[in-house]
Amino acid sequence: MSALRLINETEVASGVTTVNITDLFSADFDIYQIEFSGIYQSTNVSNGIEGLRLINASGSVITASEYSYANLNMPSGSAFAENRFTTRDFIFFNLYADQLGEGNANASMYIFNPNNSSSYTFLISQANGQTSTDMYAGKTIGVHLVATQIKGIQLYESTALNTFGGGFIRTYGLRVDNG
Amino acid sequence: MGKLVQVATNTVSSPTASVTLTGIDSDDVYMVTIVGASPSSGSDEIRIRVTKDVAGTPTPQTTANYDWADKFLRASAAFINDYNTNQTSTRGTGNIDNALNGGNGIFYLYNFNNSSEYSFITIESVTYGFSEGRGYQGGTVYTVAEAHNGVYFFPSTGNIDSGTFTLYKVV
Question: Which value does ipTM take for this structure?
Fold first, then answer.
């Protein structure tokens, strides 16, 4: 059996701007791999999706400015950009999308120690997406700056008109067996 | 998606000078993970050396043959093109605040079992140190054509106080 275990598959619903995945993290794993694939917009809009928020042990989405990140945004048609925030209310991880057929967002992310209440939660992400005008690749590191137990994630878009059209989010736990 | 088979793991529960993971004995790609690592002092880095079997003992290689190049991502300052050649060890994680158990990373290992090739490692790490999130994204090479059976992690000073270090084979 592979040490990489599929623990959740969520289809992104059409017409929403947030996707919450709860009860995702547990004591069974310390590292998670999350694959965001084929996420597109429901309308004709070139959109940089805001990104990721975390869900605490009470089931509440953490909306406070408790996130820090560094992102290298690499468009195919313009200069690269460094996005740096020591505190923000989400983590941008370079998801760019458009309506179906014009572009979609994809990313491979690792999340470290979310279930550990005495540790910050950390992430690494590599993304590649497309809009009708450009392709955007990106590298991101992020930290949730509070030592608390994290149980889930939210895919977050702030603009009410920029609803998602579809896509998938698959989460794998990376198992460690001692002895 | 490939299958990952665990080869070795070490969870640090008391201060130790280093962590060694061995068991590379095939030409497959291998992956190493670090989660929750913390140095004993200040905001040290965790560095890497490759290990070679010497008379039955996995021995970290200390010759000045490590080259690296990475993008050093920082949350509060401009990113840095971080590179060097002919060093006696190489990048692992960035600086880790020793109170936060915040050293994490994913490393892929290539050509370690091949005695005719150099050994390569890709680097992706994230830490919290010096009051900011930090990460390395890049790669490193040990420019000696010989077989290596594992990796050796050590802090830039002092001990490693915590963390789980695991070696997987990608099959």
Answer: 0.95
